[in-house]
Automatic annotation (TrEMBL):
Top-rank lineage group of the source organism: Bacteria
InterPro entries: Peptidase_C15-like_sf
UniProt entry tagged with the keyword Signal: yes
Protein name, per record: Pyroglutamyl peptidase
Signal peptide: 1-21
Keywords: Signal
Gene3D superfamilies linked to this entry: Peptidase C15, pyroglutamyl peptidase I-like
Residue numbers spanned by region Disordered: 318-340
Organism, as annotated: Sphaerisporangium album
């Protein structure tokens, strides 16, 4: 049975929409509701993005193979293979391997995001030939998410003298404001995954993964499940997200608070960051990245700031106040240096995991500049999905994140 699945997987030739509809008509329940994110895929801009990247047949191929499965185990194999295949295809495209598959620049992270949603939508509306519980479908969706985000493909070399760096990025977000949006942190993850860089201080190996902009996945422990097996092997880690216009920030303090800004499913969440063992949850965690070295280095065209500002409720008080130089003793967090959204939360979770595992390694959060379109292409209603300045900005941000990582790695001793 496994051989049959692999054979089908490898023979994934393009399939037209009418042919797909006929071939999968018996196993698709189009009345099953799609997620908010999946619903956006039907728009003209997402369709143009996947088409111009050559990713427009990804979901249809996946749906066709999934339709042919006859057992849950076979479905697991298909979901795993196709999820991992999408991640590897996106990484290869970003790193210049194989044909580009379209005229979008290779550094573009958006095809991965939108193609994944096509696959999760197909899986959500799949009507199998065997009994499938809601829990079973959710497990398959989780497996697809992990594989297509590189979360189960992190592999550090065992060789001595190699500095191992773990980097995370994010999906595009605020898509109802501008559906064309790209996220330079996700693009950076694709550009750097599995790369080895020779520096004056030795070899640096970078492994990456991408995370969703969804409160629920974080509350369910996705960050900890993905990072826990690998942080003990790492010499350094940094979570990366898109932040403020025109500058990089090394965020000094991370706060244990959700500020409620809507996520990609238009869900809000306000309150303490939900973690295991909340009784022992600190209000603040601190970066251990070598921020002084990073700020002092010449890493690219954007300025880099050591950001220490937080918002706290001081001990004994009830109203929040802004502190430019970090939290005071006994205060309650309301905003970390990196804010109160999921960028702050992934930094908080990763550094809390570092501390709970008692790891003495550098780690923290880097906020990139906001990725901007060209000056004549700012209106999402009339603008194009890409332009030369947009591409240049993204490439410059990717290159500068890489430089920041190498500065931090150079300042970090390799493990024996």
């Amino acid at each position: 049975m496994t051989v049959c699945v692999v054979s089908i997987f490898l023979s994934a030739a393009p399939i037209t929409a009418p042919a797909l509809a006929a071939e999968t008509a018996g196993c698709a329940d189009t009345s099953a509701p799609l997620s908010i994110e999946e619903q956006r895929l039907a728009g003209a801009v997402p369709q143009e993005i996947v088409r111009r990247a050559g990713f427009d047949s990804v979901a249809s191929q996946f749906a066709r193979v999934l339709c042919g499965t006859t057992s849950y185990r076979q479905a697991e194999l298909v979901v795993t293979a196709h999820g991992q295949r999408l991640w590897r295809r996106a990484v290869d495209r970003a790193q210049g391997r194989g044909v580009p598959g379209g005229d979008l620049s290779r550094d573009d992270d958006r095809p991965l995001y939108w193609a994944r949603l096509g696959m999760t939508g197909a899986l959500r509306q799949w009507r199998p030939a065997f009994d499938l519980t809601d829990a079973g479908r959710k497990a398959l969706l989780d497996r697809l998410e992990r594989g297509s985000r590189g979360q189960d493909a992190i592999r550090f070399p065992a060789a001595r003298g190699v500095k191992r760096v773990l980097v995370t990025g994010f999906d595009p977000f605020t898509l109802d404001r501008d559906i064309r949006i790209s996220n330079p942190s996700g693009a950076t993850a694709l550009a750097l995954d599995g790369t080895t860089v020779r520096t004056d201080a030795g070899l640096v190996r970078i492994e990456t993964a991408v995370f969703p902009v969804r409160w629920g996945d974080f509350a369910d422990g996705m960050v900890e499940r993905a990072l826990r097996p690998h942080l003990p092997q790492a010499d350094l880690f940094t979570t990366v997200s898109q932040g403020r216009v025109g500058r990089f920030d090394i965020e000094r303090f991370n706060g244990a608070w959700r500020g409620g800004f809507p996520d990609n499913e238009n869900v809000s969440s306000t309150g303490p960051i939900p973690v295991s063992d909340p009784a022992g949850q600190p209000q603040w965690t601190v970066t251990t990245l070598p921020y002084r070295d990073i700020v002092a280095a010449s890493t690219g065209r954007f300025p880099v700031r050591d950001n220490t500002q937080v918002t706290e409720i001081p001990a004994g008080a009830t109203a929040p106040v802004v502190r430019p130089d970090g939290p005071t003793e006994g205060s309650t967090a309301r905003s970390g240096s990196g804010g109160d959204y999921l960028s702050n939360e992934i930094a908080y979770r990763a550094t809390l995991l570092r501390d709970r595992l008692r790891l003495d390694i550098p780690g923290g959060h880097v906020h990139t500049p906001v990725l901007q379109f060209g000056a004549t292409n700012t209106d999402p209603a009339t603008g194009t999905i890409t332009d030369p300045e947009f591409v240049r900005n993204r490439l410059d941000i990717i290159a500068q994140v890489r430089s920041i990582i190498l500065v931090a790695a150079t300042a970090t001793p390799a493990r024996s």
